[in-house]
Amino acid sequence: MAHMRRKRKGSIGRSILSMITIMFSVVVCSVVTFGAVDVACNNDINTWAPLYPDSELVDETAGGFVRARASGLTDQVYYSADDASDVRKWFRDYRNELTEGRYNTANPDAALGPQIATIRRYVVEADDGNGALIIYDLECAYN
């Protein structure tokens, strides 16, 4: 009796279905990961670079992937009618309250907590001498 090979029915179909399932899984995993990073960036920025109360957005350059003040690059300028020294004091008090009891004894200048965003904030007198400009230079998960 001659040896007969069995044909596997549907093996090509199963292979194609498996490839589609794998590609779909990779896309879903990438979207979920990106979303989680975007949320983490937004939370980090809003915690460490809060908006000054009653300030108004006057300029924004958002290179964020989805939204401003999240993953990507965001440059913002806010105006406050308050004096620049009062604004600086508010930010100093906010940071002191936020970091109360949290410090690194080995390196007092070390970052506190798992900060993932690079945040630069400047407070300067408004051009007309009335009020202050608050300049945010924010970067998270960009490189």
List its traits:
alpha+beta, elongated, 143 residues
Provide an overview of this structure.
The protein is of the alpha+beta class and 143 residues long. It is 37% helix and 25% strand. The radius of gyration is 26 Å and the shape is elongated. The model has no long low-confidence stretch (mean pLDDT 84).
Mean pLDDT metric: 84
Number of helices: 2
Global Rg: 26 Å
Gap from first CA to last CA = 67 Å
* Helix-strand string: HEEHEE
Structural category is alpha+beta
* Biggest beta sheet attributes: 4 strands, antiparallel
How do the helices and strands line up, and which of them pair or pack?
Elements (H helix, E strand, L loop, with lengths): L10 H38 L7 E9 L7 E9 L3 H15 L18 E9 L6 E9 L3
Antiparallel strand pairs: 1-2, 2-4, 3-4
